[in-house]
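Module 6 notes. Inverse folding takes a fixed backbone as the condition and produces residue identities as the prediction. Think of it as a translation problem where the source language is geometry and the target language is the twenty amino acids. Below is one complete input and output pair. Work through it position by position during the lab.
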């Protein structure tokens, strides 16, 4: 367990009660700017948000899967900065030992040495199953079927989805054929090893060539599918929260505009949104700006701001020729309609998310208090609370108890800022020596603490004076013994110099010794060459292939486990996505196994040719 040890050295011979003073930093308090500053930590998450376009059938709304990978770290909390006052532990009749260690601007030790944890990941990265995001949730966007069926996706998106769908059975069939061919090659190789013939040699050569050709075709299919899947995926990585006092945020992080532009048909989307959220018209061609249902109210603007932004769009203006007519009127009408449908566009196709931190159990909760208390409260530390981060779709309240909304991701961990800040005071009374210590784990939780105080009430001034006199006599005696000490030091120095000279002489080798070393090196090189020859030219490649195949088998097992744990596994689009990924892994495995079979065949041929 990593921990931070805070230890105050004994405070000796105090003329009055001494207290450890730690002040919350404030720009308005000059005293808080002098001393050893340190910050508490708070929990921050690194989130990789991934949205994948899964389906674009005409006559239906597109389907997108949203998922998140979440890592947990601790970072310095600028809201909680404290300053240790070293002068509070110093006086004329007191000895104090104060040391503070820093790394990258952060306090890592106070009168002790500890392990720095800056940037340390305190929880394993969690990968969530994700969910199918609902496009156009909350309001109806028309989707026509039949002869004039609506297609909101771009032609390139449709083509990439079709390519993946087309390649899937081809990849599966090619993988199966290569597996069969590899088995046949193994059989031929065994027969050739038992009884070499020219016919078997030609059969092995033909089968090897066929496997290599099939593998190249499979590699091309796999590469094309992988490229298409990357095109259909939008990834964003960010850290949250930026401040320890932020517990909820969103909607944020929509799909990037460039991704939306390439995935969807902009003109078709705009037409659908305008049909779902039309502008106000009279007779289907004249603008109706005034009134409770006029364009000014629909856009949430004041009349002055509306006409300042769209001076050509007067009440009753005829826009029936737009957008074909062009000109300033149509340009401003286009801008006004874009503003009208933007909220619907953002929620329907941009798919933003909201983030929430929620405490679990009876301890902890949201606190936004600034550091408080007085200097003599001592060292401050924070005890985290059990909690969870929720990633919700849009502004859905998926973090609330009783909500039917399904989160995109939910990860539990210890969350520092949901816990409370405690203080560890210390004081040393007059004529006493004392110490205090505390151990904290990597989450800032107190694991061990203790207080020691040795009373000296019977000590009087005569005794104190005698102790001081004893120290002065010891000092005088030490001064008298300085010449002897200097002589002892010179003797030790001379001996050390002699030992160094002997060691350097031992490093100088005679010609005979150098020749012996060179012969030993040549003998070692010969043994290495003999070992390589014994292994054969392809043995190293065999071992490398075996390791890579074993890793791929682990990846396939993990992929199957993710499918079993995915709550959306019963949906066809999700199963197809997993199947495509599994097919890519199987294709790579088949390639490695084919290479291993080719190497085995080459060895068998070499052995047969070398046989008498």
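Target side of the pair, the amino acids:
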């Amino acid at each position: 367990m990593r921990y931070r040890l805070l230890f105050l050295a004994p405070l000796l011979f105090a003329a009055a009660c001494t207290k450890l003073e730690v002040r919350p930093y404030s720009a308005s308090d000059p005293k808080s700017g002098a001393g050893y500053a340190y910050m508490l930590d708070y929990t921050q998450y690194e989130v990789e948000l991934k949205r994948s376009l899964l389906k674009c059938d005409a006559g239906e709304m597109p389907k997108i899967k949203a998922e998140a990978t979440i890592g947990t770290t601790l970072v310095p909390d600028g809201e909680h900065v404290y300053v240790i006052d070293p002068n509070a532990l110093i006086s004329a009749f007191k000895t104090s030992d104060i040391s503070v260690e820093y790394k990258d601007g952060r306090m890592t030790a106070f009168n002790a040495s500890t392990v720095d944890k800056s940037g340390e990941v305190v929880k394993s990265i969690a990968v969530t199953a994700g969910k199918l995001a609902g496009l156009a949730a909350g309001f109806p966007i028309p989707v026509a079927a039949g002869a004039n069926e609506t297609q909101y996706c771009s032609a390139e998106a449709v083509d990439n989805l079709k390519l993946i769908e087309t390649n899937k059975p081809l990849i599966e069939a090619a993988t199966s054929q290569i597996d069969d061919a590899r088995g046949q090659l193994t059989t031929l190789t065994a027969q050739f090893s038992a009884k070499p013939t020219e016919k078997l040699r030609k059969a092995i050569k033909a089968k090897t060539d066929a496997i290599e050709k099939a593998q190249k075709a499979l590699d091309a299919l796999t590469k094309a599918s992988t490229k298409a899947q990357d095109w259909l995926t939008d990834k964003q990585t960010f850290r949250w929260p930026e401040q320890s006092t932020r517990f909820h945020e969103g909607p944020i992080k929509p799909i990037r505009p460039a991704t939306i532009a390439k995935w969807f048909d902009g003109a078709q989307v705009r037409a659908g949104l305008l049909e779902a959220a039309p502008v106000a018209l009279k007779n289907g061609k004249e603008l109706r700006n005034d009134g409770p249902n006029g364009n000014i109210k629909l856009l949430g603007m004041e009349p002055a701001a509306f006409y300042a932004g769209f001076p050509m769009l007067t009440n009753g203006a005829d826009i029936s020729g737009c957008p074909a007519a062009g000109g300033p009127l149509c340009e401003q009408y286009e801008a006004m309609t874009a503003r009208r449908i933007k909220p619907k566009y953002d929620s329907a196709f941009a798919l933003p998310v909201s983030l929430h931190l929620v405490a679990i159990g009876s301890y902890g909760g949201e606190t936004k208090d600034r550091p408080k208390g007085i200097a003599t409260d001592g060292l401050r530390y924070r005890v985290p609370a059990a909690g969870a981060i929720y990633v919700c779709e849009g502004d859905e309240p998926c973090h609330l108890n009783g909500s039917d909304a399904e989160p995109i991701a939910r990860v539990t961990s210890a969350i520092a800022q949901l816990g409370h800040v405690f203080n560890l005071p210390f004081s040393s009374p007059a004529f006493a020596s004392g110490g205090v210590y505390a151990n904290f784990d990597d989450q800032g939780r107190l694991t061990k603490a203790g207080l020691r105080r040795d009373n000296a009430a019977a000590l009087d001034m005569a005794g104190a004076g005698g102790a001081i006199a004893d120290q002065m006599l010891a000092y005088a005696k030490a001064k008298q013994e300085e010449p002897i000490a200097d002589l002892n030091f010179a003797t030790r120095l001379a001996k050390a110099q002699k030992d160094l000279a002997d060691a350097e002489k031992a490093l100088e080798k005679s010609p005979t010794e150098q020749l012996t070393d060179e012969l030993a090196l040549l003998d070692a090189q010969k043994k290495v060459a003999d070992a390589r020859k014994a292994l054969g030219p392809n043995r190293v490649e065999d071992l490398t292939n075996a390791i890579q195949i074993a890793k791929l088998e682990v990846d396939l097992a993990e992929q199957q486990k993710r499918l079993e744990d995915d709550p959306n596994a019963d949906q066809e689009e999700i199963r197809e996505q997993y199947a495509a990924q599994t097919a890519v892994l199987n294709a790579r495995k088949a390639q490695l196994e084919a290479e291993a079979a080719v190497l085995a065949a080459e060895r068998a041929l070499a052995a047969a040719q070398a046989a008498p």
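Reference fact for the lab report: Residues 256-350 form one domain.
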